[in-house]
Prior knowledge:
Elements: H1 3-15, H2 17-24, E1 29-34, E2 36-38, E3 49-51, H3 52-65, E4 67-68, H4 71-79, E5 87-94, H5 98-110, E6 114-118, H6 130-139, E7 145-148, E8 154-157, H7 161-175, H8 180-194, H9 210-218, E9 222-226, H10 239-256, E10 263-265, H11 277-284, E11 289-291, E12 310-311, H12 318-321
Helix pairs in contact: 3-5, 6-7, 10-11
Amino acid sequence: xxxxxxxxxxxxxxxxxxHLGRLRHRSELLILVYHGVHRGSTPGSVWHFLPEGALExxxxxxxxxxxxxxxxxxxxxxxxxxxxxxxxxxxxxxxYRNNRTVAFPILEALEVPATIYLSTGLIGTDRTLWTFEIxxxxxxxxxxxxxLSQWGPGVVRLGDEKARRSIAxxxxxxxxxxxxxxxxKELGTLEAVLAPAPGQLGDELAMMDWADVAQLQxxxxxxxxxxxxxxxxxxxxxxxxxxxxxxxxxxxxxxxLSSPSPTFAYPNGKPADFDDRAPRELAxxxxxxxxxxxxxxxxxxxxxxxxxRITIANDTPLWEFK
Length: 322
């Protein structure tokens, strides 16, 4: 956030403009998207993994000022035109184990319902997202200077951990442009160039297994939707790949759970990350709604297959959240 925008947000929260804004948009739906939550009081190295205290403070605020509904129910109400008070829904993407071990106790204590979107091919495995692999390779690289021109940054000195993570993010954004086969080839080359020291991905990046999913569903507070099989950006896929990634994940969630959500979350979820093929494929599998990461609120005119969400990062202070 720019210094000017930071100042405006702080001043607005201090004056109470967020209360006016909430009332003005009381017939619209706010959807929040979280990813991971970690135990601790300060932001960790993963930008979208919140400290547990931050999540608790945000959800307490949400519970106090909004009607918080399951996303399915909130969307049905939105398109029926029956939302007349500030309403919010909470979602989590990917399916990290810490959603059960750290986030769920907070959700349960505050009675906040949530929907978790599963990359089904990762659930119950020791795999994690390829983006985390790249970040760890750069952080653990044994090189001090490396030619990364093939992936955007050029010839760079790797520097300290903060600088390395910034370089990793640049590489990740470049490789998000690739389809799965091209990316796999690039990853093999990239790992060889970086020559990372041996190491393990942290436990905070571990995914849930299906027993975790069943436990959370049994609570009645958590519902689950599909997020592709392998967390693939659907606009980068061929027609057959897109069908496999959507149908495979929707079917797996449907087969595993007694009441799957009729919603889907696009991986990455920016405007360029899904195209007209995706809604047709989703509708063919009885998915009525799809959420993106395009920022904004939703009204009855919002495309039900391009719903907007607000992404919460690990360094989002409470005044900015408000």
